Amino acid sequence: MQLIRTKSSLRKILLSLCFVLSAIANAQEQSGSLTVEDIEFIGLRRTRPAIITRHLTFEKGSAISPEIIEENYQRLLATNFFKEVIFSTRPGSARGKLIVVIEVRERVWPVLEFAGGFTELDGWYLSPLGIRAYNIFCSGQSLGLRMIIGDRVGGLNLNWHHPDLFASGIDFRLDIDGLGRDIIHYFDGREVLHHHETGVLRLSFSGHRGLGRYLTAGYSAGSVKPDSSAKFTANDSAFTTFPSIIQKDLGRKKVNSFWLSLQADTRDNTIFPRKGFWGAISVEAADREFGSEMQFTRWIFDARFFGSRNRRAVAALHLKAAKISDSAPYYERFYLGGANSLRGFPERSLTPVGWGTELLLGSFELRIPLSRRASFPPPLSAALFIESGAIGTPEQRINRDSFQYAAGFGVRLKLPLVGVLRMDFAYPLDKEDFKFHVSLGQTF
Q1: Looking at residue 351, what DSSP letter applies?
Q2: Which helix (H) or strand (E) holds 393?
Q3: Of 55, 89, 106, which closes a domain?
Q4: Peptide bond into 377 cis (omega under 30)
Q5: Is the Cβ–Cβ distance between 134 and 111 less than 8 Å?
């Protein structure tokens, strides 16, 4: 029997050896390729086979290879439905056909979670305490509650995920957030932290098959309450006299909206992609007809390209364009400058008072693994980058003179549980200065 076990550190060697033996044994097959005749499951006590096959990239009749087995092994582990996953194969009814056997040990009890990451609005964050129940009702559902602590954000998040709502093939997600956020303003060149209490309920729906795989639609119902005062970061003194463009949006406001997103993802890895593409075009509309006190329409185009010739150094390109209605409140608009925007400048420092209604951003990175170990993603890597961005307002639209440029280098360190620690030295091209940025996760 041909055996492929993806369990130990020798997993990839065994995979490659078994498929070499399979190819020799099936040398009389003209095509020389191996296909899946059937998929068998061992160890399923609660989970339905369809829950597993939903996460696989192959099916009956598909081609199979060591790389495909490895990718699907990682995909099943990432679901956290199982404590252990073992893939094996045995000969099928004819040459070149294999039966893939998937043996699992199911997870029964909820697990404690520790995670980290970043968002474009809030910067880096940690979830030092969280609990999640996986595979609820044996249907692939998950329910989690986590605490969020970050450099400018803190609060709680409750989330529920149903991968096949009402057996319709629709992926459903529910998120409820109660967060406090500190937004950065610059008044006369001085940095001000402005606290906002936010609460939001988000519903999102996406498909699994056909065109539905590329579409996501959703509804958001929330409220935002900016404080009536802020604090200067230099001396912690109070600031109460806001410009009129900000003053008009103070007080608790309801912000309810619908959105639609068209996106595609062909990346080979989400943490350190070496090839592929991720892109999205989204539109969001808030209106009084939805119960919102604020009215605006927001469009965002975001595209990210990854390529590598030698499977080590990776070229990465990010292009982003965004626009929002002039009537949008400042906290729904765009910012520029900082670790997750245009590096080389202090956080939000290129953002006009009242924030921007137009945004253009481009970034190119060359990512180079520094570790000699074959582990992937690499535990240590470097990056060289150059980027440019511009932001506009209703009074000052983007033009050729609006763009700012920066270049630099950085180091990426993979940490247990937290993810990727990112450190960048960035230099504005029109200033004799540099900025050191520290954050979590890749820039894109």
Answers
A1: P
A2: none
A3: 106
A4: yes
A5: yes
- Classify residue 200: in a domain, yes or no: yes
What is the Cα 207 distance to its own chain's centre? 18
Last residue of a domain, one of 55, 80, 106: 106
Report the CATH number that the domain containing residue 186 is assigned in CATH: 2.40.160.50
Cross-strand bridge partners of residue 191: 186
Assess if residue 288 is contained within a domain. Answer: yes
Q: Are residues 211 and 228 in the same domain?
A: yes
- Kindly report, residue by residue over 310-338, the tens digit of the pLDDT: 768 999 999 999 999 999 999 999 999 99
Residue given tokens 């303003």 in the structure block = 185
| Total-model pTM | 0.79
Q: Show Cβ contacts of residue 427 under 8 Å, excluding neighbours closer than 6 positions.
A: 344, 406, 407, 408, 433, 434, 435
3-state class (DSSP) for residue 43:
coil
Tens digits of residue pLDDT in 100-149? 999 999 888 888 888 777 777 777 788 888 999 988 877 788 999 999 99
Residues 267 and 137 in one domain: yes
Q: Exposed, middle or buried by CB within 10 Å (0-12, 13-18, 19+), for 234?
A: exposed
- Partners of residue 325 on adjacent β-strands: none
Same domain, 400 and 433: yes
Segments forming the whole domain that contains residue 378: 111-440
